[in-house]
Amino acid sequence: MLIDDQETIYPYHEQITYVPKRDCQKKFNIYLLYPHRPKNLSANYSVRIDIFNKDSLTYWASWHLSIPFQFLPVNRIATQLFIPPVVQQGESSCKLSCGQHGRCMKYINKNSSYFCQCNQGYSGRQCNIQHSCSCSSDSLCLTSSICLCSMKRFGRNCHLTRPVCQALNNSCENNGLCISTDNRINVSDFMCLCKENFYGKRCENQITNGIAIELNKDIIEQVSIIFIHCIKAFDLSEHH
Prior knowledge:
Largest sheet: 3 strands, antiparallel
Helix content: under 10%
Radius of gyration: 22 Å
Number of helices: 2
Distance between the termini: 61 Å
Order of helices and strands: EHEEEEEEEEEEEEEEH
Mean pLDDT: 83
Number of strands: 15
Strand content: 15-25%
Strand order of the largest sheet: 1-2-3
């Protein structure tokens, strides 16, 4: 998201559904537009990246990226994000006043930089601006113009549904989690995140006795021979 020095979030943003199994080490190219043309030279813009758990729509963490040359019409920023293994909690030592509708959070890539992470329906530097929301009831309203859709919806206000992952026609078996491909690429493609002991494109296979090994297609195409060595370990108290 593009923000200014008053933490105002502008409607020019991009959303990506990141799946570690599918997208690890993948590069994403994101384009953000300034809100005014010509650009307001008195404003100090930067980029804020928020991540949420897509399944539960709960907040996870944030990064802050400075735009180095504010006077240029175009800037290119390259960064590598390391997603923390646990949800980031509010900072008790923070001196920002976030009121009753927000909590103070620290950017994980900056040791002493804080911001107010606002509750749904509120925005502003201190989360004191209430705004109306036109997002669907099962989505998360970040600002009056930004909606975070649930897993089975998409669109500006999350009113469009993804039929490939509908509950009545779930493409994944055995309670697997259906994740549809980016609707800008393909509205009918999907992938399944399987529960423990299940595997396959639709989680249709179950592991009974043994170990299921799944190799990335890109790895298989790069090598001609793959050697896998498995060692069976026993508890010495049971096997003498």
